[in-house]
Design a protein that fits this description.
By secondary structure, the chain is α/β, with parallel strands linked by helices. It is built from 12 helices and 12 strands.
Length: about 375
């Protein structure tokens, strides 16, 4: 009897390990389209998240970023938190969030990033996890309440979220190639139908983790995989050394990584909202090709993103595989001209026909995210 229990337990453990390995495995992305020009091998989007932002400490980082000519994404808080610990307060706009941001910058922010204590977050905290077991375990170990999707709460706003913002960050990972982990991004989750589209990001949270993510080996593999890294970081968090004499030079490993990547002509640095727009355009093209269509209708707001996309025609089939010039990749324009597609801007929204994430991809992200939380806790 005892032996039988041991055998059954062993079989269960082995099955669980195999099942987890199956879910965690990241298959190569299969698409003929790339969200960067034909002369680039990968794209990197860096989002400087606003926690800990102090002009005094981020100055050396931005000086280097400017001298390298890199385009990044900057987040801001919309409102100050009156009772927050001053050490963790970041740059904020004490204003009517979305409306005033639009008035100030002339455009809507494209992305929203929820944090561990933002009460207006929706489908956050334990609700990010699939299945009751994981939700329960997460609830036990994490505090914070998130009411963006709680009807009747003053923080409820998920019903208008799509009219305000297109993309919301979901899971994070320590892998550099975010797109390999989340090939369906920006994606719709069938369990969160009202939410905008979700996307994953790679963890470069503090100086040391940022430098590690952009190690030479990681960046080389990103180029080889023709990948996309959507990195979130905090330039205000340990990017500089605090010297006893009061000097605050940039960390050596961070400087080395930024200079190496910034001077690499094979890398396209693209703001996060822009890379997500390009990926959304690619999805629309992929769907049209899958259905064998001859016309492609794009949301007006996305037509600007057409210019920076490239195609590998050899990876397509039938009449779509015409390769102008025989290069490995060509610009989207050249390709659709050669295959005779009609591309036009129509009255469709970014959300029409959104790509839905498959269960296996979602579980893979959840497991990678949990592994990342254990290896490098982010709260
Ligand atoms: Zn943050």
């Amino acid at each position: 009897m005892r032996r039988r229990i041991v055998v059954v337990a062993l079989i269960v453990v082995v099955a669980l390990v195999l099942w987890t390995a199956f879910l965690m495995h990241v298959p190569a992305r299969r698409s003929a389209f790339y969200p960067f020009p034909a002369d680039r091998q990968c794209a990197i989007s860096v989002t400087d998240d606003t926690d800990h932002f102090q002009f005094a400490t981020v100055d050396p980082v931005y000086a280097l970023v400017d001298s390298l000519g890199l385009r990044l994404t900057k987040t801001v808080w919309a409102f100050d938190a009156p009772d927050a610990d001053p050490a963790s307060v970041g740059l904020s706009l004490e204003l009517e969030a979305y409306a005033v941001l639009e008035e100030m910058t002339g455009e809507r922010p494209k992305i929203e990033i929820f944090h561990s204590y933002n009460q207006e977050a929706f489908y956050w905290g334990s609700d990010r996890l699939p299945g009751p077991v994981l939700r329960f375990l997460h609830g036990v170990t994490h505090r914070g309440s998130f009411e963006g999707a709680t009807e009747g709460s003053p923080y409820y706003w998920v019903d208008i979220a799509r009219s305000l913002v297109c993309y919301v960050r979901a899971y994070t990972t320590n892998d550099i190639n975010t797109l390999a982990l989340n090939p369906s991004m920006p994606y719709e989750d069938p369990s969160t139908p009202m939410a905008p589209l979700w996307f994953a990001s790679s963890n470069g949270r503090i100086g040391e983790q940022f430098a590690r993510l952009f190690s030479e080996a990681n960046v080389e593999s990103l180029k080889e995989e023709r990948g996309v890294s959507i990195v979130y970081t905090h330039f205000g968090a340990a990017f500089v050394e605090e010297r006893p004499d009061g000097a605050r030079p940039l960390r050596k490993d961070v400087r080395e990584a930024l200079v190496r990547c910034g001077n690499d002509a094979a890398i396209a640095f693209v703001p996060a909202g822009e890379i997500l727009d390009r990926l959304r355009v690619i999805q629309i093209f992929e769907d049209a090709v899958d259905r064998g269509e001859r016309t492609v209708g794009l949301p007006r707001d996305l037509t600007y993103a057409l210019d920076a996309i490239s195609v590998d025609p050899a990876a397509l089939h039938g009449p779509y595989s015409l390769a102008p010039g025989g290069a490995e990749r060509v610009s989207l324009h050249e390709w659709w001209g050669a295959v005779g597609l009609e591309v036009h801007a129509g009255d469709v929204s970014v959300f029409d026909g959104a790509r839905r994430i498959a269960w296996r991809e979602r579980w893979r992200m959840v497991l990678r995210w949990l592994a990342t939380q254990v290896a490098t806790p982010t709260g």
